Amino acid sequence: MKILLSWLNEFADFGTDTESLSDALTSLGMPVEEVIESGSRLQGVVVAQVLRTERHPDAEKVHRVYVTTDGVNELHVWCGAFNMSAGDKIPLATLGTTMPDGRQILKRGILGIDSEGMLCSAKELELNEDHGGIFILPSHLPLGVELFDALGATTDTIFDIDLTRNRPECWGHLGVARDLAAHLAVPFQAKKIDVHTAPVHKVDINIASQDACGRFTATVVKNIAVRPSPQWLQDRLSRSGMRSINNVVDASNFVMLELNQPTHAYDLNAVQSGFRVRFALPQETLVTLDGATRELDPTDIVIANGEDTAIGLGGVMGGLDSEVTPATTEIVLEAAWFPADTVLESAARHGLRSEASARFERGVDPFGAEYAASRFIEILQITCPDLVVCGSSQVVANNTCPQQLTQVTLRLSQVLRVLGVSLNATEVHELIWPIGFVVADQKDGNALVGIPSWRPDCTSEVDIIEEIARHYGYDALGKSVPHSPVHGRLSGVQQRRRLVHEVMVEAGWCEAMPNPFLDPSSTRLAGIDDGAQLALVNPLVAEESVLRVSLRPGLLRAIAYNQSHRVDNIHLYEVGHVYPRGSSGALPDEEEMLCVMSVDSDGKDLSALSTWNLLVDALGIGAQIDQKNPPAGFHPGRSATLRRGKTIIGAIGEISPVVLKQHGITGRVSCMELSLSTVLREEPKAVAAKTVSRYPSSDVDLAFVVPNTVSAFDIHRAVRQGAGALAVSVDLFDIYRGKGVSDDSRSLAFRIRLQAPDRTLTDEEVAAARQKSIDAVAKLGAQLRA
Amino acid sequence: MTSPVPFVEQIAAVVDVSLKTIAALASSEEVAQAAPGLVGKKSALSQLKSSMGSITDSEERKSAGQALHAAQTSVDAALAAKKSECEATEMAAQLLREQIDITEHLVAGTTRGRLHLVTQATQRLEDVFIGLGFQVAEGPEVESDFYNFEALNMPKSHPARSMWDTLFVESEEPGSVVLRTHTSPVQIRVMQNWPPPIYAIMPGRVFRRDTPDATHMPVFHQIEGLVIDRNITFKDLAGTIEAFTKAFFGDDFTSRLRPSYFPFTEPSAEFDIRRANGSWIELGGCGMVHPDVLRAGGLDPEEWSGFAFGFGIDRMAKERHNVEDIREMYTNDLRFLRQFSS
Predict the structure, then answer these.
(1) Could you tell me if the ipTM is greater than 0.95?
(2) How crowded is residue A13: how many other Cβ atoms within 10 Å of its Cβ?
(3) Residue A368 · residue A260 · CB < 8 Å
(4) Which of A253, A575, B303, B324 has the most other CB atoms within 10 Å of its CB?
(5) Residue in chain B nearest A468 by alpha carbon
(6) From CA A19, how far away is CA B63, in angstroms rounded?
(7) Chain B closest CA to A195's CA: distance in Å?
(8) Strands B305-312, B219-229: parallel, antiparallel or unpaired by DSSP?
(9) What residues contact B135, with CB distance under 8 A and at least 6 apart?
(10) Where in the numbering of this chain does the Aminoacyl-transfer RNA synthetases class-II family profile domain appear (chain B) (predicted)?
(11) Nearest to B168 among A420, A486, A538 (CB)
(12) B219–A506 C-beta distance less than 8 A
């Protein structure tokens, strides 16, 4: 929202200190994003007249121009443009003038002949982009006068304000000025306007659909002429971000920018039969001012004429056929109030957010129409001094129109409770009457607060408390720190999630954050079932239009990206949510997952596997390593499902070469995927200490020939179970494939350390444990290696 | 015939030879080899000792004994001195020989991994708030319309909904499931599930239908704070923001609140923090929890009051590390990620 200082100053004397005004606006909740100085402040360029021009035999590209600024004295200037002749009025930059580009006008000429100034193009004066020659001025401009004064150009300071949704009245300069004047305690006055009404000519108004319109006023104005607006008014509009059209439309827009009341001027000929306000009929169409044919919806507000032909889309935009034209001499001004939500939906439906609809959807003062119409006439009188106002008619739809004064009970105790400061009714009154609130003390600790009709956003006690706080000053309220009776800490799940991150970082993984939105094909390309994949209704782009059901597609893409940028030693992990379609209820079965992926050229990189071991150790968790049911998207011979009975909690191993090929990834990719939602929930029990035995230990080394179909895990478990309680550790210390071992087997060598807590073991005990281990392993089909 | 050499002179001669031999030894290995011949049982001195019995004169034997003892002591000492001299020389040589360039082993740098900048910032924020007596709450990223809007005082078609460009997820009832546009729905879930008093922060991922640019991502992170207690006022909000500012940024930072608008708080404010150099940074939004929001969370606004605040985590990370373009934090380029040790 662009707010002009000159405009504000019409309501109160705010001075010119733009920095402190900026701060004041910001502290009222109207943050100033930018302060723009607009209009030229150039001094020293005056209106001059060409007396004669002369060529110089030695100067080909320039000529000599003799000008005067007082009609008497002659000044000589060199000039490179030839578009002027004797009698033309032209801008002369006098000696010593600093031009907008920083150049200073000096006496130095050429060929030993001085130049006593410079003639300027429009571009050199930053008036427009025209640099085709010297700017020829209108002939009526008085000689010797500062050019910008002569042109009637103005300067202004523009505050670009980021307005919040709760301050509809600030969409007009009046509202901003009122708030600012209250804050700065300067007298504020909205002008009183006397409108002289002559012969009465009223148009009929019929609000046919009571829900469509709360109030509708129509003012007939005759004897007008459509012409351009004065320069200062055009400047106001353009600095507010609107285009000047003609004096009638400009006056309407001016009033809107000043009072936040949209109005619309019709050619009287189009509405001689009166107005009919209703909702649109089925299949009804309207050509709006922008030339577009709109198919109307039965919830659109239609302004129709007495013949029931649509002539405007209520609160949004007028119709093309009833527009004011250059030939118009009689107009009707509509100033009305429409329900905010109806206008909001209508504007959204037609993709037609106009200055008017933006204001109606936020809330316009239902009782501002008459004042706005008066102000419109006052502005129009500037260009049409002979206009005649023929009276106005108004109709109210009582059920739709808000009350003129809403009253809300304010408990002073509640002011203290919310703001922490104690205020009595008088103090509250002092704070908010300058912005239109009326406070009456009820003597029972309550005050009755009347809310001004231009503040439709204020409807409840807390809304008033906010206004009190704004004008008391947020800073002035003070600060205190509440003492938390709660023990600040991470929950168990959160502590364990931190632990997971720590393990990852120590193990060399870098955390990635891939986009959780995927291309619909990404999941399938990663070899994963996409049946539970949910789509976004309104994605930004098709490549990001479904919600992920696995972290793998994102990490695969990240790997491909890094490989294509020649990055080595790729170890990436992610902790993030997946969002498969919900098995019950409307929300997905959101799950927090961990996924790690590393690239490895020779298949010897075990980091994903060792990371699983680190997590098992750190979190005290476990899972069956089910290699018989390889997970989808993984290498079937080099992967396992992590499961607990029927519950799958993750997957581990190498990504399928087929998947890697699809992603253009070279080498092998080692991966581990784990449901953190499942494992972080588990609170590990504190480990009970075992006293370290002080008796000697004995080691037994056993090597077994184990068929490839039997897992090392199972053999290890069998060895440990066979050795029994005396085994303090069982380590796999050698794996051998090759000569002496058949191709379908390998040799696994274990070292069993046996020790008793209370005695030295006998040879018999050691031998028995050894034999039991051998027997247990034999049951799995593995033999002691000869 | 020559007269027999006097015993004492014999001793002197052996000492002389022994000391010369010792002086010629060049390594601890030679010392070890020579030692038996010099001080062992078969050494010349030992032989002289065993021949002392042939001296009959007691005086002469006594003085011979003393001379022999002195000789033994001096040879022992010389040998020990030689031994340590050789060992010292050899150790010095060994140390010289074993010299390495330590930096050869440091050039490669760490193989430690990295936390994402957003995770680092989140953890730092969590730690500061934990110190201020807050707990950490979490909620789903895909939310119902109720939690994301309705319970936050934005009934259906409330105009303020347009403050957030919302991404919708397919659902049986169109428009009823959204990607949460802020972490505020967790406020409602916490109010519904935790008995007050509540001092909680809620960090997490949020989503907006924004085209990515240098300062915006459609997927980013926020942290939300919620305090619900008896007699919580606006002053407590301002004081908590100030306490956080000093704890997180440093003692020379201050904060200010200025009026703003959010449907779920009233009075509402934006909060800015002021750097030591006097410049302000806009940080986030806050305010007193709106009575309608307390009701939606199942709390009686006449009994409980509170405040809430929230701000972006990504931006904190961006500011801290001078990341020029926020999109860079989401390329997952290891050359970028590896820069930031955690």
Answers:
(1) no
(2) 12
(3) yes
(4) A253
(5) B267
(6) 113
(7) 37
(8) antiparallel
(9) A486, A487, A488, A489, A490, A491, B199, B200, B201
(10) 125-317
(11) A538
(12) no
What are the distances in angstroms from CA A637 to CA A369, A555, A607, A653, A716?
80, 22, 18, 9, 21
Instruction: Report the C-alpha gap between B22 and B267 in whole angstroms.
Output: 98
Q: What is the CA radius of gyration of chain A?
A: 42
pLDDT by residue for chain B (342 residues), tens only, comes to: 456 677 888 888 889 999 999 999 999 999 999 998 888 888 888 888 888 778 788 888 888 888 889 999 999 999 999 999 999 999 999 999 999 988 888 888 778 999 999 999 999 999 999 999 999 999 999 999 999 999 999 988 777 787 788 999 999 998 899 999 999 999 999 999 999 999 999 999 999 999 999 999 999 999 999 999 999 999 999 999 999 999 988 899 999 999 999 999 999 999 999 988 888 888 999 999 999 999 999 999 999 999 999 999 999 898 889 899 999 999 999 999 999 987
**Which of B168, B173, B267 minimises the CB distance to A536?**
B168
Query: Do the Cβ atoms of A512 and B337 come within 8 Å?
Result: yes
pLDDT at position A202 = 82
Q: Do A512 and A574 form a contact (C-beta atoms < 8 A)? A: yes
Task: Give residue for tokens 């305010």.
Answer: B287
| CB environment A432-451: b (16+ within 10 A), e (fewer) | bebbbbebeeeeeebbebbb
CB-based contacts of A587, cutoff 8 Å, min separation 6:
B140, B142, B143, B144, B177
B chain contacts of residue A463, beta-carbon cutoff 8 Å: 266
Give the pairing of strands A275-279 and A205-207.
Answer: parallel
For residue A273 the two structure tokens come to: 């039969």
Q: Which residues are CB-neighbours of A412 under 8 A, at least 6 positions away?
A: A422, A423, A424, A425, A428, A445, A446, A447
Residue A373: name the closest of A328, A335, A329 by CA.
Answer: A335
Contact call for A514 and B332, based on CB within 8 A: yes
* pLDDT tens sequence across A446-472: 999 999 999 999 999 999 999 999 999
B290, B266 Cβ separation under 8 angstroms: yes
Who among A465, A470, A534 is closest to B170 (CB)?
Answer: A534
Q: Contact B232/A482, CB-based, under 8 Å?
A: yes
Q: What is the β-pairing status of strands A783-784 and A745-754?
A: unpaired
Selection from B228, B264, B260, B225 nearest residue B245 by Cα: B225
Distance, CA of B169 to CA of B153 (rounded, Å): 22
Buried b (16+ CB within 10 A) or exposed e, A386-407: ebbbbbbbbbbbeebbbeeeee
Question: Is A590 in contact with B140 (Cβ distance < 8 A)?
Answer: yes
- Report the chain A residue with the minimal C-alpha distance to residue B270: A29
Q: How is domain B115-336 classified at the CATH fold level?
A: BirA Bifunctional Protein; domain 2 (3.30.930)
- Rounded to whole angstroms, the Cα distance separating A29 from A50 reads 54
Quick one: pLDDT at residue B1?
46
What's the gap in Å between the CA of A341 and the closest CA on chain B?
A: 8
The structure tokens listed for A524 are 């399938």
**Could B239 and A481 be called an inter-chain contact, meaning their C-beta atoms sit closer than 8 Å?**
yes
**Ramachandran category for residue A336: left, alpha or beta (phi over 0 → left; psi -120 to 50 → alpha):** beta
* Residue B212: both structure tokens together: 């990515």
What are residue B202's phi and psi, to 5 degrees? -135, 90
CB contact at 8 A, A559 and A669: yes
Helix (H) or strand (E) holding A40: none
B312 secondary structure, DSSP code: E
Q: Do A632 and A671 contact (CB within 8 A), yes or no?
A: no
- CB within 8 Å: A483 and B133: yes
Q: Which residues pair with A783 in a beta bridge?
A: A705
pTM exceeding 0.80: yes
- Give the span between the Cα atoms of A41 and A63, in whole angstroms: 30
